[in-house]
Amino acid sequence: MQMRGGSSKGAYFLGADLPVEEVERNDLLLRIMGSPDPREIDGIGGGHPLTSKVAVVTRSADPNADVDYLFLQVVPDRATVTDAQTCGNLLAGVGPFAIERGLVAVAGDITDVRIRIMNPTIGFAQARVQTPGGRVRYDGDTVMAGTPFPAAPIHLAFPGGEAPVFPTGRLVDRFAGVEATCVDAGMPVLLVRAADLQIDGVESPATLEGDDALRSTVEAMRREAGPAMGLGDVTDKTVPKISLVSAPRQGGTIATRTFIPHRVHEAIGVLGAVSVAVGVRTAGSVADRSEPGEQGPVRIEHPTGSFDVEVDLDGAGATTRLRRSAVVRTARKLSDGLVWPRSGKATG
């Protein structure tokens, strides 16, 4: 099934429909999506990291979850499939997909789906899906920045954890000579002041991608930050992301431009936004823009609008922990049927 989940688009599969062996599974997915090819012209991928994604969903053996969700990023121009991170946008489609495939029974006009996230940092989420008349409702009036049309709201809630959200044990580090705050509230993110990179912070994604000097500095920072964040060598990984932060221009709390990590997001990822919001609410981070005791959602501006994130924090400073976060996304079923992968091996 192809679905738009949040501001991303991907292919959703039942786990039982894919090979168990990882190498065989990844080869099949490369051939299905049309990679390696920047246009993915011979597959169903969209030629961009945001539209070359896969969700694998199975019934969960965990009593605290209904389904397991494994996110796989298929890199358009390289024969690479990685599970190094999850995707909070594609997560928005997991609940509807699980209901459509009979993994979760409809429970009335609203059906809650408990999801275990199976990427390296295992976590849990709950999706609240509209199911009037016993079927998933996709149409609605919720307008979500990053997509052009309204749809039914899907409420996503994430429990917190015991680990501090600042993995280096510090609120401010320095990488490649530039100050940054390392946050991991579900997605490893490097927060950097746009001004420290000699940019305004509201440039278009195309402008930022075309700035070779900026991209070189951002990549140098990312590679230095990886080991400090406990991620090891991140040269060939898609984490950490890098969010450049600046003062808001449209009435929000903060403005962002996010490298994911080489292209620039047209909006912002769900869990990446949660990490930004944590930085905003923590005094002393490079993204600190909160008054003491301030409550309410953090409105994060991005290239195509804004995104509200609710975060409930515990503690202070580098020992801060996340109790809970919540967002509202939308999703829509685009197609449902069979796909014919190209023959041969993906690297052939």
Automatic annotation (TrEMBL):
InterPro entries: OMA_tautomer-like, PrpF-like. GO terms for molecular function: isomerase activity. Coiled coil: none annotated. It comes from the Bacteria. Keywords: Isomerase. Belongs to the PrpF family. PANTHER family: ACONITATE ISOMERASE-RELATED, ISOMERASE YBHH-RELATED. This is 4-oxalomesaconate tautomerase. It comes from Mangrovihabitans endophyticus.
